[in-house]
Write a sequence for this structure.
DNA sequence: TTTTTTGTTGATTGACGAGTCAATAAACTT
DNA sequence: AAGTTTATTGACTCGTCAATCAACAAAAAA
């Protein structure tokens, strides 16, 4: 049975299963067996490919983060003007790929993981830094000295909307969620429109 | 040694210890022994007063929530006018009593708990509902039909700022945090000033 | 003063779960 | 063909921890 070249396939399956299970259970208290089972293999194999459960968590985080990054980059290439780019970044945060139950649940739990695991904290900081500089790049020409606080505020709204969504039930409404953040943006920009 | 009337004292000590330990460890993976030790008693006694660990968590949540509620109510009695009351509510969220490391850490983890434990979810919903109606009461006269979305947005900023604070290190700066939320409020209200 | 209630803990139980190991087998290398 | 690497798992170890129990002590009630 052993076909060679399984490693990337197994790893990808495990990463996906990790995210799904964390989202399903709603906490980091998922067993390696649960994850492995969902990924269609034994827990021993999971340990074989990832040294530890923590490694699995970190890989899952990196995966979500890189999907997120790709989505933002993609949105940016299609956007024009400072304001357009701002909107694009905000919208990307609530795109169909990112703003899903399981992913939202995973985010929340990664935040908790970052309290304990330095590596996880670092990853989250990288994400925050990127979001921040993306926003600042377009915000500075529009808001000058106040750009920093606006970026901070926008970031907080986005994270807050994610957090609150985790408490709701039913399918997330990305459009509505994005509306809350865009609303903030519009109102702030109005102060500089002329 | 057994002095009568220990129950409330022991329970209070446990609740306090629970919050501190969750904040310190940064997750819900605290053992009953850890909590009991910090509260100065055996784990058996902790189980004697609270039936289970989950009960302890819920009691800790209720405690934080009631402190929070008291703080908001207090701030409201001293505030004048719709705008004043709005600011008071926002500020209360970042008061010295609420916006502390351990409490912030506990909040984050209670949010996670709410994913799993229905009782915890209910408690969090009650808090959200109160915040919402407090904001709406003062927002409606100022923003009319848009009051709902503003309340939603303001709530998201507040939660977002809490969330982000959990990632930072060092003593939380309540003033700066409140500034982010107030900034949002001011900007939105400007749209209705005349 | 007996009895009951309240406070308290050390020791134990029972379950669960991360990580390891030994064994098996297919696929490549030489 | 012999040897090595890669894939795969069932069984096992070892630790941890929530929850319970048995036992002891002091206070309050009878």
């Amino acid at each position: 049975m052993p076909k060679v070249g399984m490693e990337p396939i197994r790893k990808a399956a495990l990463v996906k299963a990790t995210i799904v299970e964390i989202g399903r259970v709603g906490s980091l208290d998922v067993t390696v067996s649960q994850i492995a089972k969902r990924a269609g293999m034994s827990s021993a194999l999971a340990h074989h490919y990832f040294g530890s459960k923590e490694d699995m968590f970190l890989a899952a985080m990196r995966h979500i983060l890189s999907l997120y990054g790709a989505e933002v980059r993609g949105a940016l290439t299609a956007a024009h003007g400072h304001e357009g780019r701002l909107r694009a970044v905000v919208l990307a945060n609530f795109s169909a790929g990112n703003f899903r139950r399981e992913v939202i649940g995973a985010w929340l739990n990664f935040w908790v993981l970052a309290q304990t695991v330095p590596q996880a904290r670092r990853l989250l900081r990288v994400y925050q830094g990127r979001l921040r500089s993306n926003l600042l790049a377009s915000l500075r020409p529009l808001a000058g000295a106040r750009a920093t606080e606006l970026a901070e505020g926008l970031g907080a709204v986005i994270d807050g909307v994610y957090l609150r969504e985790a408490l709701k039930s039913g399918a997330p409404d990305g459009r509505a969620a994005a509306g809350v953040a865009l609303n903030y943006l519009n109102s702030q920009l109005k102060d500089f429109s002329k």
Observations:
- The interface with chain A takes residues 25-28, 105, 108-109, 111-112, 114-116, 121, 124-125, 128, 149, 152-153, 155-161, 163-164, 166-167, 179-180, 183-184, 187-188, 190-191 of chain B (CB under 8 Å).
- DSSP finds nine helices and no strands in chain B.
- The mean pLDDT of chain B is 95.
